[in-house]
Amino acid sequence: MCNVKNFLAAMLLVFAVTVFGNAEAAIVTDKVPLQCYVDHKVTSYDTGSGQAVGWIDAEVDLVRITGIGDNGVAIGTHPGRNGTVERLFWARDVFADTNYSNRIAHVNGYQQVYRTQNSGSTIGSVRDEDVTVVADNGNRAQIIYRLDNGTGYKMGWVPSSVVPPNPGPTPNNKLQDLINRWNGHRWVDHTYSQNSKQCKEFAQYIFNELYGIPGVGSGSTSDNPTNWRLNNTPSSIYQVAEVPENRNASQAKEQFRNLFAQAQPGDFIQIKRGHGGAHSAIFVGRTGNGIQWFDANADGNNGIKLQTYSYDDLVRTTSRGYQWNVAMSLYRAR
């Protein structure tokens, strides 16, 4: 499987550089495999030669995207003359907004999701769940939502009224304001702690500023063997997912990737370090091959920093010979 993934990644890079150049911005989503339809006839290209070899029929051919390159070149499958074929195509022909705002909205009740903006055909449905809004286009919105079996995602269209913008500043905007205020400073606010070296208390401060929740629970001490979890959590938060303790770096990396695929900006991250101690941070967002979180005291000197890590970084072996992060939990405000 790894060889196949590496081959596809290599082909995406070669194709993007030699054929398309650098014309497209990256599509910031790792929500793949992603099933969807297109709303106009889309040209598809051979994965080896880069030559145009076919097309995707609008509202008819189910597309399954398996990867998106930094240049906006997508790879995936769609129906062909002799069965399903694997092809390359422009992500801009699939996503209504190639800037991909990544806005999270909650759908109340039951709502059908349609194949295209103007189609009466459905691709599925959502019910009482969070979805990702890709684009707002008049009275319709393009959304991504998770499949019930957890094996991937679907993308389609709903009325904009189903996913209205959040009133006032969104948590993401508030979080950016807090990052701008604190990044590069030191955590010495004794209003929240007489012990200014507590990463958990800084993360709790940010979480409280975002959601008005003054406590997330206990369980961050190094003598607690399950200190990647929070105990005594209030009813105002819930655990989204966790990666239990696992010292196999290769397996842990994939588990962390799956964990953060479910994360939203502002989520509280509880971590167990390889040396046995705990750490806390606030999730900010995903990058092309990793994540960003906001924390204090990762430097051991109260420093506050917006950190960017690849998934390899998260499981690297330290100079002392232990895996840096061995377990994590993700918590969210209700």
Describe what you observe in this structure:
A hairpin with a 2-residue loop joins strand 8 (122-137) and strand 9. Helix 2 (171-182) packs across helix 3. The protein has 5 helices and 16 strands. It has 3 domains: 2-93, no CATH class; 103-162, SH3 type barrels (Roll); 171-333, endopeptidase fold (from Nostoc punctiforme). It is globular and about 60 Å long. It has an 8-stranded mixed β-sheet with strand order 6-5-4-1-10-9-8-7, with helices on one face. Strands 11-16-12-13-14-15 form a 6-stranded antiparallel β-sheet, sandwiched between helices. The protein has helices spanning 2-20, 171-182, 199-211, 249-261, 311-314, and strands at residues 34-36, 42-45, 52-56, 63-68, 73-80, 83-90, 103-114, 122-137, 140-146, 153-159, 237-243, 268-273, 278-287, 290-296, 304-310, 325-333. The longest helix has 19 residues, at 2-20. By secondary structure, the chain is of the alpha+beta class.
Could you give a quick summary of the protein structure above?
By secondary structure, the protein is α+β, with helices and mostly antiparallel strands. The protein folds into three domains: 2-93, no CATH class; 103-162, SH3 type barrels; 171-333, endopeptidase fold (from Nostoc punctiforme), CATH 3.90.1720.10. Helix content is 18%, strand content 37%.
